[in-house]
Amino acid sequence: MSKDHLQESNTLIFLEELIKLDQDVLVEGDNVGLNFKDFITRFAGSLPINPSETLVFLLSLHLNNKISFYLDDDSRQKEVLVKLKPDKLSDSSLIEFFSFMPILDRMAKEVGVLKAMPSAVVDFFLNKFYEEPCCKILKEYNLSVVELFAYLHSLGNFISFNTKTFELNLLARYMSKVSFLEFFHYVSNGSSLLINEKLWIAKPDRFSDEVSVKLTNKSLSILFPEWEIDQDPSKIKVTNDKFQEGFVLYQPEELSNIPLYYNAQNQKFKDRIDLILNNTTKDKLSVNSISMMISGYPGTGKTAFAKKLCRDLGLTLMYVEVSEVQTKFIGETEQNVHKLFTQYRKLWEKSEKPIVLLFNECDQLFGKKIQVEKSSDMYLNAIQSQLLNEMENFTGILIATCNSTDNFEEAFKRRFLFHTVFEKPDFETRKKIWLGLDGAWNNNSKMLDTISQYELTGAQIDNVLKKMSLLSTIDNSVQDQLLFDLIEEEDNIFVGNKIGF
């Protein structure tokens, strides 16, 4: 873009026109967005003649907080609107630039300059952010204009929509058909510098000719050097970023240290597991793995048991929420399963102490195989076959929780060494739970016996106390009655068919 279009004098002329529009259109205190096309028509005389230079000029004003552009999410076509009173931008102009990419795309489409955008955006990026570390690094790769534009576009997609995956077809609108097919070919066969330099990973679709790409950790480390991301995709970084790789990794000191109370049979099971793990080593577990299935009523402490076990024994917990592993896309869930076990094996190799792998709420994942009547049935059976194969070769400590094993495939049941059912706490256990919590019942044995009569789980008792805390502004005499009301309310939640969640 010509530097003349960014000179202060030209900007001031434009802003003077903008003030006139503000006075003509907006009522006092209003900040309603104006239609972008109408806006362009109004300012045609004070904008650069070249449409692509116009868009880059407006982008510059947006980044300098002189005017704001945004997408109307309520519009089916995601229409671009203009705010004459700018919103406060991100602290980083670079991040704001990437956030602006989807808006710029729509602006370019409305103005009809899509094919000119790659060179205009790349020139702007290199001139505007030449002092930024990421810009200096990208210059060293000597990417073509098309490659750098595509890469910037994928980063904008990540910043705006929080996804590393980027569909290459989104770039077709910016190139001639011949240029796009050539670029598509370079990426899909691994010839592109973006693939060779490990900035992208190509992901062919198993059921079509389409190709998507995924930003690597190396890419994110270029944009966010302060994140200290492990750039080697063959290594697994110990991290607590939730579901970054499909799991949460908890160090023992990060897990809750609250006391847990179980019925006599469940406590006996916990003591037995504690004894085994206290008297074994990682080397022994590499030969004789430990796997346990914990089923039972919701809120009885199945997940809390696994976390408490790791806390007490000083073990790292790899926590997998099964709902995060399953997807609606054919073939992707079994890939996720394989990836999780691969990550666990790498973590196991790197760790000095055993690591616990927890599959939480796995009812659907371990269900019985079904007769194939449609393609989705074959898909579900393929997931289970993948999971059975992984468990067959498993080394380590595996815990799976579920509400019931009645509908489980027998092959899954055989692969678990230990099985136990966590029942709802009995009367004496409920008394222990209430006594472990602060309240008027601690000094009132009659009240304690009364509230313990209600067959609540530990999770339900916790819910009662949370509600009490929110309503703690009333006096004590009314508060006692409130306690019983909340207990009865919680006790009635699962009346009838008590299903899991």
Automatic annotation (TrEMBL):
Keyword entries, A-Z: ATP-binding, Nucleotide-binding
GO molecular function: ATP binding
Keyword ATP-binding tagged: yes
Domain (AAA+ ATPase): residue spans on this chain: 288-426
SUPFAM superfamilies recorded: P-loop containing nucleoside triphosphate hydrolases (SSF52540)
UniProt superkingdom: Bacteria
Family: Belongs to the AAA ATPase family.
Listed name of the protein: ATP-binding protein
